[in-house]
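hiii, so i know i said id send this last week but things got crazy w the move. better late than never?? heres the sequnce for the chain we talked about at the cafe, plus the structure i predicted for it. fair warning i was half asleep when i ran it
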Amino acid sequence: MLAIALLTTTLHAQDAHTLAQKVDAHYNHLQSFQAEYAEHYTGMGIDRTETGTLLLKKPGRMRWSYDSPAGKLFVLDGKFAYFYTPGDAQAQRIPAKQLDDLRSPLRFLLGHTELEKELPGLTIAPDGSNFTLTGVPKGMEQRIHALSLTVNTDGVIQRIRLEETDGAVTEFTFNGIHENVPVSDRDFTFLAPAGVEIVDGMPPI
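okay and structure toks below
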């Protein structure tokens, strides 16, 4: 029985390694990425779902444009991250290197990392016709209990689930994925609405 258990563990580790490499290979060749997303959050008595469009471009650019709630925005221009919620008098700005936000582990979508280094202790589990890879983001162990990527057999990420150490869960589901779409650096320039001040600070939780 022990021998069988050890063999099963070895096969699962190898499968996780192989699939992680496939995910790396898929996203490393991308220059840009666009998808519709649904963001579901539960925790601290809150249960909310927000939707919008995600746009990525190498190197290090990311834009989350929300249509629900309309006007909410998160922009990463490669140097700074900007957060804005409609109705606020201020937009928050923080250097990208100091970013400690739940979206920051998603930088592997930009093809700048190796999953097995980014998520130590990576494991694999079947999920219907897909597979789920799970690990703990390096450097975020105090906040994130587990990060799971549900991917298809081609290594394309369909869903991302983050479980925080306080029990909160955030899940991103992607649809309408388009890869290597034409995008401009201007798409990642944050322009504050009239009367809104940009201030340095920490991102909202």
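btw The mean pLDDT is 85. thought thatd interest u
miss u guys!!
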